[in-house]
């Protein structure tokens, strides 16, 4: 999978595409897999890097969403729990079970949450991850030795899924390409073309590396730009009513000592009624998230002071050793592309269901939903797109489509387990050139061979692509990632990189 091959496909494709997808996050790439696997001629354009938007900045949970149960959105929970099971079957190298503990500090909490979590497990039906149960104080402390023991009565344990969002996305790009789709990163859609009747008939786009512009036509154009949905809709009609209500979520990353075992902590009700997680991830501790309405989406959102303070204070309430600012190794912020509700000012209460919207211009937009439900969202989207674009009817087959890298026992590859069936090729790189087996930085779990692999086979174009979304270095430890940057840029790791602009 190289960008040069993708650009060659694009240049040699003079006919109309069946579908052009704008946006290379979970939603867009999910749609590309679905459309291409039905045999539709599919092009996807991403203006920066695959996953540069929200899809690399999630809490990394493949889950039904306990909080939606509380909101009474049973159908969303059931759909997400089913998708959780399908994703674990199709990408076992990237999705794993995770044990969550809900601590109880009041007499009513364990029976109350115990009942809710039993229902949560029941709703997963044959896709269940394990039965929930009430824990004694001793069992809770054994599983979460760093939890605040003051007034602790016990807890409830339940199971959900965890994944590496950006790694899954990169493997999904490869899956879409294997199914015949053409996907190009660093290629912005700058305009929409229209036919004689005023319906959207294609896109104008710019290759951000060469600066060249081009047009491509399609039977249907799908806008999957998440928080930027309205700005793409406005390319077809500047008078549209916005449909997205952006809300930002912040995570802080700490070292492993804050959560040294394999269990995660889940707080169902923070001071302001939100859910807070502390999760072990890649040998670190991830704590978040917030949910703050923002006026406008930006490419690189920054955390607000109040959000950082809120996470630190909430974590201090539940963890024995209170984390401080100097313990923070990294911070990342993502923007939820929530779909507006007529009369809700609280974004936490907005639905996480996805929405498919077709403008009068015939532009189809898909927004909202969750990472967990990307496959089902894509199926729904392509069903609508096929009708709109008068494409031949073809069944969706993605419930049983393995994601690139599928490997049933990937854990045998140790630190390279996240690459699944690609891991032996990375091991071979290290054997051929032992210098590539050296760590990028002592504080990071990555070696030079992963950089070479990312550049040669995963369409990484910049140092940041490698540090943020091919490895997760910048998300785990920003100082160590900055120290590693010159190594990533060095010729050995980039060896045999395709020429710039290719
Ligand atoms: C803080 C937080 C935590 C979350 N945690 C979870 C979780 O644990 N589990 C879960 O299931 N879900 C979670 N979610 C939800 C999930 O992450 C999102 O629903 C999902 O990532 C949205 O993907 P997307 O593809 O719609 O948007 P994005 O990932 O933002 O992708 C949109 C893409 O469109 C591109 N684009 C924009 N304009 C153009 C243009 N003109 N031309 C070409 N490309 C363009 C952007 O560069 C971007 O890459 C979380 C969300 C947030 C914010």
Layout of helices and strands:
Blueprint: H1 3-12, E1 17-22, H2 26-37, E2 42-45, E3 61-62, H3 66-70, H4 74-90, E4 95-104, H5 109-123, E5 133-136, H6 137-143, E6 154-163, H7 165-178, E7 182-184, E8 187-194, E9 200-207, E10 213-223, H8 229-236, E11 244-255, E12 264-267, E13 276-281, E14 284-288, E15 292-293, H9 305-318, E16 330-339, E17 354-358, E18 364-368, H10 374-388, H11 423-432, H12 448-457, H13 463-470, H14 473-476, H15 478-489, H16 491-494
Parallel strand pairs: 1-2, 1-10, 2-7, 4-12, 10-18
Antiparallel strand pairs: 3-6, 4-6, 5-6, 8-9, 9-10, 11-14, 11-15, 11-16, 12-13, 13-14, 17-18
The protein binds flavin-adenine dinucleotide (FAD).
What is the SS-derived class? alpha+beta
Silhouette: globular
Query: What average pLDDT do the residues reach?
Result: 93
Helix content: 25-40%
Please mark out the parts with pLDDT under 50 across 5 or more consecutive residues, or reply none: 497-502
Identify the bound ligands.
Answer: flavin-adenine dinucleotide
Total helices: the number is 16
DSSP strand tally: 18
* CA-atom Rg in angstroms: 22 Å
Largest pleated sheet: 10 strands, mixed
**What portion of residues belong to β-strands?**
15-25%
N-to-C CA distance: 13 Å
């Amino acid at each position: 999978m190289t960008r040069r091959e993708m650009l060659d496909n694009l240049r040699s494709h003079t006919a109309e595409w069946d579908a052009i997808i704008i946006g290379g996050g979970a939603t867009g790439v999910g749609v590309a897999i679905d459309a291409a696997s039905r045999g539709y001629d599919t092009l996807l354009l991403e203006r920066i890097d695959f996953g540069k938007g929200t899809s690399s900045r999630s809490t990394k949970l493949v889950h039904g969403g306990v909080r939606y149960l509380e909101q009474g959105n049973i159908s969303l929970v059931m759909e997400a729990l089913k998708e959780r099971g399908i994703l674990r079957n199709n990408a076992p190298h990237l999705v794993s079970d995770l044990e969550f503990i809900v601590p109880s500090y009041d007499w009513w909490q364990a029976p109350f949450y115990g009942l809710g979590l039993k229902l949560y497990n029941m709703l997963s039906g044959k896709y269940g991850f394990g039965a929930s149960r009430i824990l004694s104080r001793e069992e809770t402390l054994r599983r979460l030795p760093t939890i605040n023991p003051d007034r602790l009565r016990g807890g409830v344990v339940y199971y959900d899924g965890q994944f590496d969002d950006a790694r899954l996305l990169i493997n999904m790009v490869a899956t879409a390409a294997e199914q015949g789709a053409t996907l190009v990163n660093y290629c912005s859609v700058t305009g929409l073309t229209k036919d004689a009747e005023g319906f959207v008939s294609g896109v104008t786009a710019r290759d951000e590396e060469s600066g060249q512009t081009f047009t491509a036509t399609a039977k249907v154009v799908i806008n999957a730009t998440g928080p930027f949905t309205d700005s793409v809709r406005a390319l077809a009609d500047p008078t549209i009513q916005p449909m997205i209500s952006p809300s930002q979520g912040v995570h802080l990353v700490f070292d492993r000592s804050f959560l040294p075992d394999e269990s995660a902590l889940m707080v169902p009700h923070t001071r302001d009624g939100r859910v807070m997680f502390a999760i072990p991830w890649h040998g670190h501790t991830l704590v978040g998230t917030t949910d703050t309405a923002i006026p406008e989406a930006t490419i690189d959102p920054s955390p607000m002071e109040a959000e950082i303070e809120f996470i630190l204070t909430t974590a201090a309430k539940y963890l024995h050793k209170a984390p401080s600012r100097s313990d923070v190794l990294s911070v990342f912020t993502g923007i939820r592309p929530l779909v507006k509700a007529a009369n809700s000012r609280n974004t936490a209460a907005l639905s996480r269901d996805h929405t498919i919207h077709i403008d009068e211009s015939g532009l189809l937009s898909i927004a909202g939903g969750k990472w967990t439900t990307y496959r089902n969202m894509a199926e729904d989207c392509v069903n609508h797109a096929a009708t709109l674009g008068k494409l031949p009817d073809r069944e969706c087959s993605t419930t049983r489509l393995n994601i690139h890298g599928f490997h049933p026992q990937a854990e045998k590859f140790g630190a390279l387990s996240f690459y699944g069936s690609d891991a032996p090729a990375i091991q071979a790189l290290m054997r051929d050139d032992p210098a590539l087996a050296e760590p990028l930085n002592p504080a990071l779990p990555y070696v030079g061979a992963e950089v070479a692999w990312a550049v040669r086979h995963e369409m990484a174009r910049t140092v940041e692509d490698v540090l943020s979304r091919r490895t997760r270095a910048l998300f785990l430890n920003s100082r160590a990632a900055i120290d590693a940057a010159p190594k990533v840029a060095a010729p050995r790791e980039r060896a045999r990189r395709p020429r710039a602009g290719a």
